[in-house]
Amino acid sequence: MGRHTGPKYKLSRREKQDLFGSPKSLMGKSPLEKKNYPPGEHGQSRRQKISEYGVQLREKQKIKRIYGLYEKQFRNLFEKASRQKGITGENLIKLLERRLDNVVYRLGFAPTRVSARQLVSHRHVLVNDKTVNVPSFVVSVGDVIRIREKSKKMDAIHNSLKKVRDNQFSWLTIDKATLSGTFIQVPERSEIPLNASEQLVVELYSK
Fold it and tell me: Does 3.10.290.10 match the CATH number of domain 99-185?
């Protein structure tokens, strides 16, 4: 199954939260405004109970869409998380947070993970002064992420940074003057702003 490219507003409204980064800039309106029923012709009349499998599947799809991964990418990360020490679900979320496209988004260089992925793919981002154009690159503690010199005048980057508070995430530091940031530690699950239950994903893949 490929990465979802359909109507983002409807998907966010179904889950009652913004799945893609910025409801105002990306969709023009909040997924939580008005309409407290799912999208679609029969949204108001749907009352059937979702099965346990259905609940687990929807949670997996939600997390995949938030981070913008294909099924194979997501499954590979899950398998990597399951081989690590600790709680598999928490390991999974920590690995997702360490993806370069996500770190670029968290630093505020891009308003959404989609646009962060484009910045990385188009070679605008350096890690430890080396160009990295792979969005799935896993950032390590101490890595310095910066916008390359030739890209520092991009309006999209500066417009995005204007909306970001300084050092709003405890595991990242940012220097807006130099358009650089440092990944100072792997965040604890409790620090990560993600309204999702990764345990349901663990249960789904454990069947």
Answer: yes
